[in-house]
């Protein structure tokens, strides 16, 4: 396994639409293993393949609390089959938009279908944090970031904040 570099805004690769995985094989699993390790190291609770520059419809996630055993989840070619009208506001963040958090409203429950780590077809309802996270990650597969749900002003402010922090990091590294 290896930790990969996470792309951050405004990298245009993040706007790409990812392609479906044609076959779940050892190469797919090796990528998911790397993604999980990268996500844990960040640390974060969800990561889409495009965030490490791979335009495939793959997501990894772990929603276990700090005192709980790790509970990795893997989603290949996920789809939303059904959702509910009721919206849930949740303060979201993203490894591609470091240190920026803002409320986004999404359906509280979504019925999803995906292939798991072994390529098995799964259909289930996700709710609360799970629903928020899978919708956030599935947006990535379509080139959409959580800041794209915000006003233009807030989005520009978020990107400027990230760019400023990156410049400062680069300067620190140069000294
Ligand atoms: Ni994200």
Question: How would you portray this structure in words?
Answer:
- The chain is α+β, with helices and mostly antiparallel strands and 175 residues long.
- It has one domain (12-174): Peptide deformylase (Peptide Deformylase, Alpha-Beta Complex), CATH 3.90.45.10.
- The protein has three helices and seven strands; from the N terminus they run αβββββββαα.
- It has helices at residues 26-41, 128-141, 152-174, and strands spanning 46-48, 58-62, 72-83, 87-94, 97-107, 109-115, 121-127.
- A five-stranded antiparallel β-sheet has the order 1-2-3-6-7.
- Nickel (II) ion binds at residues 94-96, 136, 140.
Descriptive terms for the model:
two-stranded antiparallel sheet, Peptide Deformylase, 5-stranded antiparallel beta sheet, 3 helices, binds nickel (II) ion, 175 residues, globular, alpha+beta
